[in-house]
Every structure is written in structure tokens, then in C-alpha cells.
């Protein structure tokens, strides 16, 4: 039977009110975890850094400019205090400590900006390994600059050692990624500019640990040839060799200063 335009439709017309519309939109909106499924480790790292900074502020008498004493007591890198294997935590803890609110904010924004692509490409475990290898290397270079190169003891802290490693890792995706190399090559070119700006900032702004930042960048380079990520074109023997050399270099550095024998 043909349908006539003027034939009234039986039954009342459905009208969606504001509350129903809100419920419908909420039902179709992805959850927080779904929206950030490729940024979970990044968010956890940011949360840890923020919580640690809040504790620093409290211990500094509610002062957002954290005192040097608090930084040292909480594990900042200070070469004279690294005297035995029990002090090796100072190669890890500085990457979660920050000197002031701007220091924290700059590093967390940088971490957030590159975290998603690296977590998606490398996987959560490899991304976390990249973060720690970069940070430890940066703190080791900072330590070496103080005790080996005679730079004088300084207090250094900040996630920037790890962040510089993440910058280098993103820049290397265009070279090392197995697929989508043209896309990552273009993405990497953009990161080169970011790295250049941060290097210039490191060299021009006073009280910035140049050795820590450059060491973190070196750590990112090392980590990308070490981590067992399936999406990277790095042969397993190369990964093993780089990992062995990295560990050997750290052991030599510590042994040469009598830390491992202390």
C-alpha cells in the first residue's frame, strides 16, 4: 500500500529532552582509560612526578621553590654522596624530583606531548625502559662531569634527563621503525626543531645541567638500539651488544671511583 504524505503517523512523536540527550552522549563517550589507552604509562609517570613535587613543597615549608637541602635529602644527584652501592638510587630518584613549579610543568608538558606516540609504537614496557635508561644515563653523565671531568659537585634533578631521551627516541623513529617510515620521518623532522630549541635552552639558561640533558639524549639513543621493541629494525645481536656495553660503561664509571668497592 503506497504511503501518502498527508497520512498522519499513528502514535505520539518521540521528543528527546536535554537529560535524555546527555545520557545518550555519555553512553557513547569513551571512558578515560579508553581515551588514554596509549598514554597510561605516561600518565602514571606524570602523576608520580606531581605527587613527589607536592611532597617536596611540603618539606620546603609550602614553598614552591624547593630548597636544595630537600632535594639532596630526597635523592637528587650530588656526586660527593655517591660513595657505595647503597647510594646508587641517586642515579634513579633525580628523574622524579624538580626544583620549582616551572621546572615541573615544562618537563610534564614535554613528557605528555611525546608519550602517546612512543607508548603506541614501542609498547608500555619498552617505553618505561626507554624512560629509565635515558634518565639513568643522564644522571651518570652528570655524575661523571662532576667527578671525572672535574666540573665540581653540583646538585641536579629533574625528569629532563628522561625527556631529552624521549625526544631523541621520537626523532629516530623515522630511521628505525619497520613500517610507516615516511610518516615517522616527517614526524621526526618536527622533533628535530624541538630538540634544537631545548638544547639552546639548556646552553643559554643558567643553573641548567648541560651534562644531564645531553646525557639523557645519549641515553635515548642507546635505549633505541637496546629495547626489544618489535616495531624497530634493530637486530637482536645489536641489542644485546649495546645493552652489555651500556652496563659495562656504568660499572666502569662506578668502579673507577671506588663506589662498587665501598
Automatic annotation (TrEMBL):
The record ties this protein, via Pfam families, to: Rhomboid
Tell me which InterPro entries the record gives: Peptidase_S54_rhomboid_dom (IPR022764), Rhomboid-like_sf (IPR035952), Rhomboid_protease_S54 (IPR050925)
Q: Name one GO biological process term.
A: proteolysis
Membrane-protein topology? Multi-pass membrane protein
Q: Which keywords describe this protein according to UniProt?
A: Hydrolase, Membrane, Protease, Transmembrane, Transmembrane helix
What GO annotations for molecular function exist for this entry? Answer: serine-type endopeptidase activity
Q: What is this protein called?
A: Rhomboid family intramembrane serine protease
One GO cellular-component annotation of the UniProt record comes to: membrane
Q: Which organism is it from?
A: Eggerthella sinensis
Q: Transmembrane stretches, by residue range?
A: 40-62, 95-115, 127-145, 157-176, 183-204, 210-228, 240-260
Which superkingdom?
Answer: Bacteria
* Domain called Peptidase S54 rhomboid: residue spans: 87-227
Q: Where in the cell is the protein located?
A: Membrane
* Family under the similarity heading: Belongs to the peptidase S54 family.
SUPFAM superfamilies xref list: Rhomboid-like
Location (main, coarse): membrane
Amino acid at each position: 500500500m503506497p504511503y501518502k504524505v498527508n497520512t498522519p503517523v499513528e502514535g505520539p512523536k518521540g521528543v528527546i529532552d536535554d537529560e535524555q540527550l546527555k545520557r545518550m552522549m555519555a553512553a557513547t563517550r569513551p571512558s578515560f582509560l579508553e581515551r588514554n589507552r596509549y598514554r597510561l604509562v605516561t600518565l602514571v609517570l606524570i602523576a608520580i612526578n606531581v605527587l613527589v613535587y607536592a611532597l617536596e613543597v611540603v618539606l620546603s615549608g609550602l614553598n614552591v621553590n624547593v630548597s636544595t637541602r630537600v632535594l639532596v635529602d630526597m635523592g637528587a644527584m650530588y656526586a660527593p654522596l655517591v660513595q657505595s652501592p647503597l647510594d646508587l638510587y641517586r642515579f634513579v630518584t633525580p628523574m622524579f624530583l624538580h626544583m620549582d613549579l616551572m621546572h615541573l610543568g615544562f618537563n610534564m608538558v614535554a613528557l605528555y606531548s611525546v608519550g602517546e606516540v612512543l607508548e603506541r609504537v614501542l609498547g608500555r614496557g619498552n617505553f618505561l625502559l626507554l624512560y629509565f635508561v635515558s634518565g639513568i644515563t643522564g644522571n651518570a653523565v652528570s655524575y661523571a662531569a662532576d667527578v671525572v671531568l672535574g666540573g665540581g659537585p653540583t646538585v641536579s634533578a629533574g625528569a629532563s634527563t628522561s625527556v631529552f631521551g624521549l625526544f631523541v627516541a621520537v626523532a629516530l623513529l623515522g630511521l628505525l621503525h619497520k613500517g610507516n617510515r615516511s610518516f615517522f620521518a616527517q614526524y621526526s623532522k618536527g622533533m628535530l626543531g624541538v630538540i634544537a630549541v631545548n638544547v639552546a635552552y639548556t646552553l643559554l639558561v643558567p643553573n641548567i645541567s648541560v651534562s644531564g640533558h645531553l646525557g639523557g639524549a645519549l641515553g635515548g639513543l642507546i635505549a633505541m638500539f637496546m629495547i626489544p621493541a618489535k616495531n624497530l629494525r634493530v637486530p637482536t645481536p645489536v641489542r644485546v651488544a649495546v645493552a652489555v656495553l651500556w652496563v659495562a660503561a656504568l660499572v666502569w664509571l662506578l668502579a673507577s671511583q671506588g663506589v662498587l668497592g665501598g
